[in-house]
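Supplementary Note 3. Input sequence used for the single-chain structure prediction.
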Amino acid sequence: MYRVFYALLFILLPSCSEITRTKDELTQNAQVYAEDASNTLQKARSFNSQNKDIHQRSVAQIVFPKVVRGSFIFGGNYAEGYIVENEQILDQIRMIGINLGPNIGGQSYSQITYIMDPETLFEIKTGQKFLLQGTASYAKSGQSITDIFGQISDGQRLITIIFNQSGYLAGISFEGTSIAVKK
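The predicted structure, written as discrete structure tokens, is reproduced below.
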């Protein structure tokens, strides 16, 4: 009995340190800077006239220059970014999400969420915002594309775009995402 216990302990202890190392690597790889946010906003405005129009109508933007996402049935995503209002950075923000669905793979991408009214901006700046959304990831012309097909956000006005995708993720999932000011 003790041999089984020690054998399990011998197997589990190294795996715990590997989980901690993976978490630290993920956090380090997702680190972004104010310049990254500005460059990401500029790129989004320049590649599509519809994005430029949405940007002009929005009161602020949440910019995630690099989102890291992975999944195998269950998965998650992580990103650090900035809230930008009138081309000025207000706060650093963090997004953490979990997803469920027939998904497999890993991907990084840029994401901008346009905040379309002052009340939603206030809510995000003063507390946490939780979003529920559905995403579809698929291959198109040899690239992995992720699209949001449904978003439930307590009636708030948010428009999210995803671009600069790399890696490969395929499937469909429903996800819950927490967006909070980084402290």
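The mean pLDDT is 77. The chain has four helices and five strands.
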